[in-house]
Design a protein that fits this description.
45% of the residues lie in helices and 14% in strands. With 297 residues, it is an alpha/beta fold. The protein has a single domain (39-294), classed as Divalent-metal-dependent TIM barrel enzymes (TIM Barrel). An 8-stranded parallel barrel has the order 1-2-3-4-5-6-7-10, surrounded by 4 helices. Strands 8-9 form a two-stranded antiparallel sheet.
Amino acid sequence: MSLHAMNRRTFLETATAAAAATLFTSRLGWAAADHKIEKIGVQLYTVRDEMKADFEGTIARVAKIGYKEVEFAGYFGRTGQQVRAVLDKNGLTAPATHVQYDELDDKFPSVIETSKAIGLKYIVCPWIPEELRKSPDIWKKASEKFNHCGEQTNKAGMQFAYHNHWFEFLPVEGKLPYDELLKECDAKLVKMELDLCWITVAGADPLKYFASNPGRFPLVHVKDMKKLPKVTTAGGQDFGDSMNDMTAVGSGILDWKKIFAQSEKAGIKHYIVEHDKPANPFESITSSYEYLNKLRF
């Protein structure tokens, strides 16, 4: 065989192998990066002032941006039926609402009734007030209350959940309150809405919690920050008002691809954008939506 023929055959074999490798790699890459968020949600606390001024108009603007889901933090005097009508008009669903700790006792049956009228799947307690957290055995007491709420919501075809700030990840008498909640709360009755910004602020790793508590996190709050702030046991109780480095999702330091790559293990079903104190709320949630809509993981 001539040197020319050998070179030609070697070239063709090499080219064929390279093409096959490229095709295989591209297929793997496509499969690995094919995941996206189908329904991006937003916590309406982000646009709370706008909601107060123009409830229906604000929800319409949220839908126009592209959001498919909203999470409530108050209904501004409207009934469950009225809220549901506004959602239906704008092609939105509301998977969850935030309900304060003092509404989890005598008022809770009414909360469930309103939630059913709206079509909610989750009722979430967003935090435990600071004065109550000073009382002895508060996390055990809170767990008992949450379990009781979970029994009630399950009977109504819904799920109870708890949303964290950063103080749950700071030690109290040698224990992390968040760990105590995970241990004391029945996993079937109480799920977690993990705020991915606050847990990061506290210096904890959400991926470790996903691994040790698989399926426990059906909802997550998706918000970003430009840099880690200094935290203390007295911090975080102001709902982020002192957190000046919060920013639109995708313009901060959180590695969303790395976090969301573990979504299946975590059990995430609802990705909810939030910014506690945006300078321009609609500009912020638009930027966050555009980033998440393009994100593949």
